[in-house]
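If your schedule permits, I should be very grateful for your opinion on a structural question. What I wish to show you is a protein chain and, alongside it, a tokenised description of its three-dimensional fold. Would you kindly read the sequence against the tokens and tell me how you understand this chain to fold? Here, with my thanks, is the record as I have it:

===
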Amino acid sequence: MTETVGAGAAAGKKSKAAGGLSVQRVFTTEGQHPYDQVTWEQRDVVMTNWRDGSVNFEQRGVEFPEFWSVNATNIVTSKYFRGAVGSPQRERSLKQLIDRVVKTYVKAARDHGYFATPQDLEIFEHELTWMLLHQVFSFNSPVWFNVGTASKQQVSACFILAVDDTMESILNWYREEGLIFKGGSGAGLNLSRIRSSKELLTSGGTASGPVSFMRGADASAGTIKSGGATRRAAKMVVLDVDHPDIEEFVQTKAREEEKIKVLRDAGFDMDLSGADISSVQYQNANNSVRVSDEFMQAVENGTDFGLRARLTGEVIDRTDAKKLFRTIAQAAWECADPGIQYDGTINDWHTCPESGRITASNPCSEYMHLDNSSCNLASLNLLKFVTPEGTFDAPLFARAVEFVITAMDISICFADFPTEPIADTTRKFRQLGIGYANLGALLMALGHAYDSDGGRALAAAITSLMTGVSYRRSAEMAQAVGAYEGYARNAEAHQRVMRKHAAANELVRTYHSNDAAVRALATEEWKKGIDIGTKHGWRNAQASVLAPTGTIGFMMDCDTTGIEPDFSLVKFKKLVGGGSMQIVNQTVPRALTALGYQDEQVEAIVEYVAQHGHVVDAPGLRPEHYEVFDCAVGERSIAPMGHVRMMAAVQPFLSGAISKTVNMPESATVEEVEEIYFQGWKLGLKALAIYRDNCKVGQPLSTAKKEKAADAAEPEKVVEYRPVRKRLPKKRPSQTVSFTVGGAEGYLTAGSYPDDGLGEIFVKLGKQGSTLAGVMDAFSMSISVGLQHGIPLEFYVSKFSNLRFEPAGMTDDPDIRIATSVMDYLFRRLALDYLPYEKRSQLGILSADERSAEVEANYGGTPNVDIEALRSTVDSSPEPHAEEQEHPHREAQTTTELMELRLGKAADAPLCMTCGTKMRPAGSCYACEGCGATSGCS
């Protein structure tokens, strides 16, 4: 199904007459290849299963730039390198991966006459290579999987299918959807053409209705999964609000949620990964109701609304619009489905209405266009465009967008597609989906609150500039290689939508010189694009969307995905050799500096955040700046309407829509869900979905719920035992030990109960007032309170000994010659001083004399043996890369499990089928922070 002679060849001939595109260098230097400007290093990638520790991927000696994080290295190596592992054909360098993709694009650009001269083509190749190498942007995952390989050259992640009111079409829907799932992608479709269960068949019987056919498709999706890699298939099902079966559709998943509760209470395993969850239906799709302006006006006015027959269009039933809208909100409150798609807004911004209405979306709701079409995505890393002065570099961003959107269009020239109808539509309309990631981190770094007028103004201006530049370059490509085939029929509508975008740009109210400068450049770009496009047309029917940026977000080392705010102010750094440590999000000090705080103030505030996880009452931080540090979860989490307002700010500047779920607290009411959905229509969104915390039963970490249910079945009274704190007396014996670990000096003071037994510790490490000293004080307090509540010392010793992080190395303690960290030393020292020999022997902690005696007893006299140097834990784990030591923040990850433990609530997310880690939300889909797998668009 690869494009051969036809549109591509014709475009190539036309380009020579038009002269092709001319480009200039932005990031690169003439005479120097991008690869020669960075330092490369060899790394070993070994990835283990989170649950059982087994190795699920290993490739040693891979080559990456020194500034790439270990996490990005692991994900790219395991996900995107092609060739059998262990074979000579296996890719082993990032250079090979980038070259495989970029050179394919360059060849297609040459074959189809995109550029005016060979020099322009070379500049295009070098600029694209530099931006990928430096994580400025990334194509979506199918590009990395397929381009330049022997496989079909599929470049699209998003698909929309079509189904008609015939059994042949319905069975073909099952087939096409299965093929797309098998390839690891997702699809969406609208079932509203299928007759309702209230209408008659030509044979005289009653139709089954679309909900009945959803069962078969759901079973197929649950069997095939998504590329065999995730538990949930990526799938969207849409039904129009005027369909006679709309109420049954709305309640399908809510009723199944009731079934889950009954089965769970009966003892069945109804977790997302449980053995019995497969008996529940409709769980493999996101459901959305397509509401019309007519319906929403009926809701607003409190009037009836007509439900229409599918074949004749006549009203066959009437319903109370307010009551139906409440039913939709009630179902979403109960189980997070259905979402809402606003049909009037969607089709008012449609560039190709003469070729058909937009009836559906992809699974994550960001791609919306004609049936049987596809969209390939790419996203830019916004933090790469922040200047040292703390401003957003709009001209540089515009130049980057030019290269990215050009490359995206070129890919359609050589792309393959899963079905012939999708191939035909995509080649005729050339839909693209450029977007961005790291918006939340960008706003915080520049001192903007996510839910603020200033934050929304900057986000709107950046989005307008991105789409304006994309359409201007699309018009230039149309001048060089021809407009999309469907343009002539839709020219008037396309031009109207371009003017709507430009008019919306003029309505953006700016608040700072930064967003004013970005909007001013966007205004110029829209004017240029409309002038060129009016004469020559546009190369692409659509240009931009905001995707969830799952795996590619990890590839670019992004702190936040898509349009999302920052998740939390603290993240967890995975340590080499196991374990983790909590560190403060590095965007926090950048934001404090941007807000004008001095270095000493920044250090004190960061230390406070490290201890408390939020900024409320942080020393020296002005209360009016608290909002800058509001995040998706935790203390001062962003209100649901804050998310909706941000979506509304950027929606007028997107060809498609936004992949995002608005999180609501567990205490949210049905009325609040109604208000969110109603305001989404008022504010001009195209789609909206909500998730109320803990609304789903079938989710991980339900052990406590099972135990509670089991206890409830017992008639006898349940006695709850709680630990009681045993305080130390005013006077208590103590001892102080000075120590040195890897050159770092400190003091350990340990206080005991008079009847023996450790009761408190104090650790002095680092300068007074430093972050490290504060963290150690807080740590000492936590351990002391735990000891006084009865937590055994041996428990702490087993958890903290053998932790590996800097400082580490030689000590001045004859009993503990080498320590893998300060924690390792402290708790081994405490064990030696306060635990009996039997318990220490079980833990493998003995004094030098005891070890010498043990060796002599077992092997005879062996004088001058350095017992501590023989400890297997010292050398068994590989040393961390220099990058980990110099840039510890690059390994910061807010894993879902750790955040669940911190917040005390379970996340409705599946377990990764590759590494066992619980995935986290990424837009409307899910992404695994352990290995980069996703359940939807990436």
Remarks:
- The mean pLDDT is 85.
- The longest strand covers residues 55-65.
- The two ends are 23 Å apart (CA to CA).
